[in-house]
Prior knowledge:
By secondary structure, the chain is α+β, with helices and mostly antiparallel strands. It has helices spanning 13-30, 44-53, 103-118, 132-141; strands spanning 3-6, 56-61, 64-78, 81-94, 122-125. The longest helix has 18 residues, at 13-30. The protein is globular and about 45 Å long.
Amino acid sequence: xEIDIRNPRLDEYGAAEHIMEQVHQxxxxxxxxxxxxxxxxxxxxxxxQAVETGTFFVAEYGGEIAGILLIFFKHIExxxxxxxxxxxxxxxxxxxxxRGKGIGHAFFGFLKKIKKQKGYDGIELQVNAxxxxxxxxxxxxxxxxxxxxxxxxx
Length: 154
């Protein structure tokens, strides 16, 4: 079945929120010390803004919204850093009933096209240390660890 990556419509908010809720529940399970129950997970105004700025995408599979992708374009430059233009993946999630169907790979293929078209230097993301499935998926796709966030907890 074909996967279509596209900008969502405002009336598709419910499908995006449903997928974000699934991911949020996983985060609560991994880090109940920092994540809490909340509704909505993705406020409509934030969704609307991301749709209007062209930084929110959905994967359509079999006529259904099967995944979401939220990105930011970053320009990094300072006296101590070489100038870099980065696509930062803020959120990428696939509805649990569509996992294993190639949607994540389709998202990364889409991101590689954007990177090339816009002349960006790289694609970056963060992954929860307890999300071993996502870590393995990203590693298999070619992502490598470049930084590690650490915390000192009470």
